[in-house]
Amino acid sequence: MNGCSDIPTWGCILVILAALLAAGAPPAREAQATIKEEAQLDQALQEAARCPGSAPVQVTVGDLYYRLFEYELAIEHYRKAQVIAPTSPDISYKLGLAYGTLKETDKAIAAFRRVLEQAPDNRNALYQLGLLSFRVGDRATTRVCASQLREFKDSRAEILDLLFER
Question: Which tens digits make up the pLDDT trace of 111-152?
């Protein structure tokens, strides 16, 4: 009927949550930026103009744009930061999230793989890679990610496992 009849209620919730995350659904939020966020962005843009070679400043601007649902602009600043600090797994992770939200799945997967090259124990990147791999039909990678998350005793392995029960 609804595809969840054999899964406990909490399991249905996890399947729905995983599907939403795999689809890149943004968190619920007001459409308009708050005055505080606009002021923070304005300040960060001024700082970025003063210090264009600062990766933390570029990341801060990217984060503000991301929170304002301006994903293309967030990516622009994350990429600037990545040029400055190419081995930062945090920047690669943020790029992966932004690309995933825009459904640029191949770029998101590449970003999460880069995170795992830089920080093999990054559980958040493992989880995101597992979700996106499932989205593109790469079930083997999803299973590997679930297995590695299980090794870390990370409960998100169960969410990846539930994807196969749909």
Answer: 999 999 999 999 999 999 999 999 999 999 999 999 999 999
DSSP-derived secondary structure letter, 1: -
Dihedral angle, C-alpha 23, 72, 44, 116, nearest 10 °: 60
Q: Tokens at residue 113, please?
A: 């793989």
Read off the pLDDT of residues 84-93 as tens digits, 9 standing for 90 and up. Answer: 999 999 999 9
Distance CA 51, CA 151 (A): 42
C-alpha distance from residue 38 to each of 43, 46, 61, 77, 121 (Å)? 9, 12, 11, 17, 35
The model's pTM is 0.76
Mean pLDDT of 47-61: 86
Q: 10 Å Cβ neighbour count for 108?
A: 25
90 within 8 A of 74, measured Cβ to Cβ: no
Cα gap 96→132, rounded to integer Å: 10
CA of residue 22 relative to chain centroid, distance: 10
Give, as one character, the DSSP assignment of residue 32.
Answer: S
Calpha distance 58→21 (Å, rounded): 26
